[in-house]
Design brief:
The chain is an alpha+beta fold. The chain has helices at 10-18, 67-78, 125-130, 133-141, 145-156, 170-179, 199-202, and strands at 58-63, 88-97, 100-112, 115-123, 162-166, 182-183, 189-193. It has a seven-stranded mixed sheet. The longest helix is centred in the middle third of the chain and has 12 residues, at 67-78.
């Protein structure tokens, strides 16, 4: 017959009686309360003061080449993989953060006899829209990126008697006039005179 579920076997009773009594439970050891953990704060860097002059955020530099800085910009704006190779190159750099600069504009000058021909003026509108509003306001109040490039490059070309430009766009014409160009008797041809020349010399 099967043993009743409620009746243990005799062998189980003998085995249980031979097991040593269990050791008394140890008193619980108190655990020290955990100190409240406060996450360490990142060191606060001193905030850079807001710029008050254009020179603090925009610089125009003469470079030996331009493709490295504005090659992609030329491709996007003019659909051309070629950027000007000769002449003098001037790039406007926007200072995004300490030690970080991006090319936001460019102009090229080709020499003709003792004068210079201005051309290839290009402006990165996409980058400009990403510039903080306060910086854009400062740039705009100073005349804009294009005007800054022209003014600064004119200073570097002042040894020549004249700087010539061919302007067919009304907006570009307004910028050129503010920068120092004047009209000539030839349609769309503008000039910056760096010397006081006679009428015959100007021709």
């Amino acid at each position: 017959l099967l043993d009743s579920p409620t009746q243990p076997h005799a062998s189980e009773e003998r085995q249980a009686s031979s097991i040593a009594p269990a050791a008394p439970a140890l008193d619980p050891v108190p655990v020290a309360e955990r100190a409240s953990v406060v996450p360490a704060k990142a060191p606060q860097t001193e905030q850079e003061p807001a710029p008050t002059a254009l020179e603090q955020i925009l610089r125009v530099e003469r470079t030996s080449t331009c493709h490295f800085y504005v090659g992609e910009l030329f491709m996007r704006r003019f659909n051309s993989p070629e950027s000007p190779g000769g002449g003098r190159h001037y790039v406007a750099f926007y200072r995004e953060a300490p030690g970080r600069f991006s090319a936001v504009g460019y102009v090229n000058y080709l020499q003709h006899e003792d004068s210079w021909l201005c051309g290839g003026l290009v402006f990165d509108d996409r980058l400009y829209r990403r510039i903080p509003a306060s910086h854009r306001a400062l740039i705009k109040a100073s005349g804009g990126v294009a005007e800054a490039i022209l003014r600064q490059s004119f200073l570097d070309l002042k040894e020549s008697p004249a700087i010539w430009g061919y302007v067919g766009d009304k907006q570009a014409e307004a910028v050129d006039l503010r920068a120092g160009f004047i009209h000539t008797r030839h349609d769309k041809v503008m000039v910056v005179w760096n010397r006081d020349l006679g009428e015959q010399e100007k021709e």
